[in-house]
Design a protein that fits this description.
11 helices, single chain, about 350 residues, Jelly Rolls, Arc Repressor Mutant, subunit A, alpha+beta, four-stranded antiparallel sheet
C-alpha cells in the first residue's frame, strides 16, 4: 500500500492514496493510476510465486513522502532508482540518499516500512522487487553473502551493500524488459526468468564491487607487493590493537610515509580506508551474534571509545550498531542535520571516529 505523508504536519499523518483507475491485467501486470493535490501517480504490479514486482512513477506538485510497507512476512527488497535522485528511510534503521540508476538490496522484517522523499515538479520512477527469504534460498542467491545471510537468519535488518551501487546497462535493460516485455506467450515465465537474471547480475556486481577495491592491486614492484600483503595480514590479525597508522608501520617495519605511499600507489586508496573497511566487516560479523555486546565489538575492532565506533559504523552502513540488536526499538525518523541526511557529524567527530 502506498501512502502520502502530509509534509506540513509535525506529527506523521498518513493519508491513503485513492486510485481512480485500475486497468485490467495485461500480460500478468496490473496498472493503477491516481491524481490529487500531490500530483499524478502510476503504479504497475505483478505477483509471482515467492516474489512481487512494483514500478512506481510519480510527478509530484509539492514535496511529499510515501512508504512501502513490507507484508506479514519478512522480505528482501531490491530497489532500482530509475529517474531522479531521492532520499529513503527505514525508520530507526537506515537512511540516506540514492542517485538515479543506483540500486541495492535490503532485508526488511515483517511490518516495517521503507519511506521515500520526493521533491516537487520532478519526474520519479522506482522499481522494487519484494522476495521471500525462502525463494532466495531455493535459488541459492544468498549462499555467497555470509554476513547478509546470517543477518537474515538472526532477523536483523541489513543491507547487502553498505551503499547504493550504480547499475550496469544490462541491469537497466532487464528492469525495462520485466515491465515492458514484447513476449506474447509464457509471459509470466519470461518475467520470472528475467527477474532471476537481474538477481544474478546484481549479486555478482556487488561481489565484484566490494572485492575490487583492495583485492586487485595495480602493477607494483614484487618487493612492494610482498610488503603490502604483509601489511594486510597484520591489519586483519591486529585490529583490536591498531589505533593509528604508526601502529601498523611499527608492526611491519616501515616508515609511515613509505607505508602510506606504497599502499596508495597499489590500490588508489588509503591505508586508513582499508583499516576502516576491515573494521566494519569484522564488526558486522561479530554483531550478528545476539550475545555479543556493542561495547565488546567496539573494542574488538580497535575503537577505544564506543561513541566513535557508533559514528563510524553508521557512516559506513547507514544505521547504528544498536539496530542489529534483538528487540531493537524502531524509532520515528530522526531529525535531519544541516544537509538533510540524518545526524550531523562535526570535523572533530570525524577525526575521533578513526580511533
Amino acid at each position: 500500500m502506498l501512502y502520502v505523508q502530509k509534509k506540513n504536519l509535525f506529527s506523521a499523518v498518513h493519508t491513503p492514496i485513492s486510485f481512480e483507475h485500475t486497468a485490467p491485467a495485461r500480460k500478468g501486470m496490473v496498472y493503477h493510476h491516481a491524481t490529487g493535490t500531490f500530483g499524478s501517480l502510476n503504479l504497475s504490479e505483478a505477483w509471482h510465486q515467492g516474489f512481487s514486482l512494483h514500478q512506481f512513477a510519480c510527478t509530484p506538485r509539492e514535496d511529499f513522502h510515501f512508504y512501502v510497507k513490507v507484508p506479514d512476512s519478512p522480505r528482501v527488497v531490491m530497489t532500482f532508482i530509475l529517474k531522479n535522485d531521492l532520499r529513503y528511510n527505514v525508520p530507526g534503521f537506515a537512511e540516506g540518499s540514492a542517485m538515479r540508476h543506483q540500486y541495492n538490496l535490503a532485508y526488511i522484517p515483517a511490518g516495517k516500512e521503507i519511506h521515500y522523499t520526493l521533491k516537487a515538479r520532478k519526474d520519479y520512477m522506482i522499481f522494487t522487487a519484494l522476495f521471500s527469504v525462502d525463494f532466495l534460498k531455493e535459488w541459492k542467491v544468498l549462499q555467497r553473502f555470509d554476513t547478509f545471510a546470517r543477518g537474515i537468519e538472526a532477523g536483523i535488518p541489513i543491507l547487502l551493500n553498505p551503499s547504493h551501487v550504480f547499475a550496469t546497462a544490462d541491469m537497466l535493460a532487464a528492469v525495462n524488459e520485466i515491465f515492458n516485455t514484447s513476449h506474447e506467450g509464457l509471459v509470466k515465465m519470461y518475467r520470472q526468468t528475467r527477474t532471476l537474471d537481474l538477481l544474478r547480475m546484481t549479486s555478482e556486481h556487488i561481489l565484484q564491487s566490494s572485492s575490487r577495491k583492495f583485492n586487485k592491486p595495480v602493477s607494483v614492484r614484487e618487493r612492494d607487493m610482498e610488503k603490502i600483503q604483509e601489511v594486510k595480514q597484520y591489519v586483519e590479525q591486529n585490529l583490536a590493537h591498531i589505533h593509528s597508522i604508526e601502529d601498523v608501520a611499527n608492526g611491519v617495519g616501515l616508515r609511515v610515509f613509505r607505508l602510506k605511499s606504497v599502499f596508495r600507489r597499489a590500490y588508489g586508496s588509503t591505508l586508513f580506508d582499508y583499516i576502516t573497511e576491515e573494521r566494519m566487516k569484522k564488526a558486522m560479523d561479530l554483531l550478528i551474534d545476539p550475545e555479543t555486546s556493542v561495547r565488546h565489538v567496539s573494542a574488538k575492532v580497535g575503537y577505544r571509545n564506543q561513541a566513535n565506533f557508533t559514528v563510524a559504523f553508521r557512516r559506513h552502513f547507514g544505521y547504528p550498531p544498536s539496530a542489529t540488536r534483538p528487540g531493537f526499538a524502531y524509532r520515528s525518523v530522526p531529525e535531519h542535520g544541516p544537509d538533510g541526511g540524518g545526524e550531523s557529524v562535526s570535523p572533530r567527530d570525524r577525526g575521533r571516529a578513526a580511533r
